Amino acid sequence: EVVTQSGVGPPPHVQHREDEAFYVLEGEYEFLIEGRTSNAGTGSLIYVPKGNLHAHKNVGETPGRMLVSQTPGGLHERFFEEIGEERKDGSPPPVSENPPDMARIAKIAAGYGIEMTPSGRSYIAQEEVTG
Known about the structure:
five-stranded antiparallel β-sheet
């Protein structure tokens, strides 16, 4: 499950090893998939086959929630474990005023078959991944 703050989302990227699906539980998202933009609200299911440039952004006024799955599984979870900080008390991570270190994230992502695009700097990744 992913919680995305209003106005944010991951940078455009390509997953070379996994297909990805997004099921919107709450909120309104804008998806960019291979140069096409579409909106997806509660109940929408978006499928992105591996090898396709994509990104999403919460365009609603409140935090949005999605169930996200990758097939085959495993690698994506380890990627998030490596770039994130474990929250043992279950509290949400603080929203940072500073942008994340995208060079560090892109380098780690490459090891998991995820290619970050240079133009992706406009979507700032501030998502909370749970469970």
